[in-house]
Amino acid sequence: xxxxxxxxxxxxxxxxxxxxxxxxxxxxxxxxxxxxxxxxxxxxxxxxxxxxxxxxxxxxxxxxxxxxxxxxxxxxxxxxxxxxxxxxxxxxxxxxxxxxxxxxxxxxxxxxxxxxxxxxxxxxxxxxxxxxxxxxxxxxxxxxxxxxxxxxxxxxxxxxxxxxxxxxxxxxxxxxxxxxxxxxxxxxxxxxxxxxxxxxxxxxxxxxxxxxxxxxxxxxxxxxxxxxxxxxxxxxxxxxxxxxxxxxxxxxxxxxxxxxxxxxxxxxxxxxxxxxxxxxxxxxxxxxxxxxxxxxxxxxxxxxxxxxxxxxxxxxxxxxxxxxxxxxxxxxxxxxxxxxxxxxxxxxxxxxxxxxxxxxxxxxxxxxxxxxxxxxxxxxxxxxxxxxxxxxxxxxxxxxxxxxxxxxxxxxxxxxxxxxxxxxxxxxxxxxxxxxxxxxxxxxxxxxxxxxxxxxxxxxxxxxxxxxxxxxxxxxxxxxxxxxxxxxxxxxxxxxxxxxxxxxxxxxxxxxxxxxxxxxxxxxxxxxxxxxxxxxxxxxxxxxxxxxxxxxxxxxxxxxxxxxxxxxxxxxxxxxxxxxxxxxxxxxxxxxxxxxxxxxxxxxxxxxxxxxxxxxxxxxxxxxxxxxxxxxxxxxxxxxxxxxxxxxxxxxxxxxxxxxxxxxxxxxxxxxxxxxxxxxxxxxxxxxxxxxxxxxxxxxxxxxxxxxxxxxxxxxxxxxxxxxxxxxxxxxxxxxxxxxxxxxx
Length: 745
Known about the structure:
Layout: H1 2-21, H2 35-49, H3 77-87, H4 92-119, H5 121-133, H6 135-142, H7 147-168, H8 173-188, H9 190-210, H10 215-232, H11 234-242, H12 248-251, H13 257-262, H14 292-307, H15 314-333, H16 339-344, H17 358-369, H18 372-378, H19 386-403, H20 428-445, E1 484-491, E2 494-501, E3 505-512, E4 517-521, E5 524-526, E6 529-530, E7 536-541, E8 544-552, H21 556-578, H22 583-605, E9 613-619, E10 623-633, E11 636-645, E12 654-660, E13 666-672, E14 688-698, E15 709-716, E16 722-723, E17 726-727, E18 733-735, E19 738-740
Parallel strand pairs: 3-14
Antiparallel strand pairs: 1-2, 2-8, 3-7, 4-5, 4-8, 6-7, 9-10, 9-17, 10-11, 11-14, 12-13, 12-15, 13-14, 15-16, 15-19, 17-18
């Protein structure tokens, strides 16, 4: 078996992992729990990255276009992978699916390397198959849609493999690779790092105890790698920990009773079905129970290890014993007997779901399976391709028991129920509908963790801030509006204006305030603050004409985290320069430079920064149209109008944007409340500048390429339909709309 597999190892890998990828061949995406979350976070990350940011902690279009600090708290690496795959020529739907391909293949490959380190090449393949197809791994992809957690599981065997190398070799670069792997795990899914790393440390200590030489060297290198990995990822986790108080998630007290309700009785941990079924039809108390096939092969592996125990090497005995012991410990953390630990060790509560530990359980149960081919060889039943046939049979059986019970349904758009298949449907309009689905769920059924990134400075109840305001205006003080506002360069996280104010006043940018939002007036920093209702970014403007810039930047905590990560990077470079193998340093450097080059090309050729056309057209005494920009993408025409609120409004007005061919023939149009209907004018705050993006659909057989003239205006529907008159900057009437042949420069 070994000689044949050595010749065909790449083919073996492809065939053994291919069954896990079969659902990805279906058109479109599947209806998993979190698919929309990850799809649109990736979409908005792409938008922010192409606007000049290298690490945009703020995603400006989520939260009904008020923005959320998602990547200040949620580990970003999985989303960067999806965006990179998109930049390499795929759509976002395809990029999501390819990210799962990368995750499955990486999990298989790293599990193979770890298994080979312990059991040899044959055992490595058995371990890789077991790890790829154990049910929780499958569920993370096809049931939960948890791309970050799925990718994180690829780091588990990688870290364990590197720990073996540190114990058994004197290659100093392995400690640096360990640091990169730990940082990668942390920045892919921080909760997975929190769960797994203590078990990895126990595993390493167990390996070290059997090592009779160089224990101090191995301990020193592993300690260095662990600490360096934590410090390398400080740019992410330090502000995530210290700034949680500023978002809704930090204000929702996690009750210790919540995860306690999910702890399982012992026998509730096992599936009653040979063909694994998934939540909510799992048939067991535990949402993600052990499968019968998983338990059977794990027990066979332990039995096989017992049969050949006296013939095993020291590291094999240690690895098998450690896998069994750590599997029991992980199992204990998921059953009701562990209640005291969950009660008294508060950090466990933030995992929310005890069944998350199934990811850690899977890696150790898979290692035991690697002893089976050793026992077959010892019992002389590994001849004439018997071992290969056995591995193929186990793969088919494991894939069948883990995957035939999947009930995959197509993911559909909440607006129209159509399957998520067409790449062009992934746009700002569908993003707003996804936000609506989430907010509506919070309004109808509650759920304290929904809209968890809503800043605490937003005072309107989360169930209402996106709906028209009811009751009288909360604004008591009169507002002194600027005489004129001119739009400068507009980037996703940086905005420039010229404000001419006849008296001291303020403007507000249509984004939730959060630490990091900064502003300057004529180059001098001024303090921003949240508005009293929606908590919008508010900038004081003195009397006169001023250049104003608003941008999302850093904080003290972020600066410290970035400084620590930079220092750790320098330390790792020095460490690797002193090692005998510098290839890894070159590879890592080239990878970083390649990503920066691709990012630079995207910013150069597909920048999301714009220079809108300018106008100052008042809509009665209520608001003013500042200008517009437009762009075409994937057969869609987007026109973005910029408004400023001049006084508190108690009515909800409708915006219309019509496009024609310059000869009066209508080409496309959109009528609706601002910001996809989720920023009604009764919610506008005095001085608020609102970038109001509209998706214009072609009329009948018209072609969007013919749209060369635009009309923008407002009307009221109640108590009776009425178009609102507009005047230019000199107060002269210009009709019911502003007409232009150019939106954007």
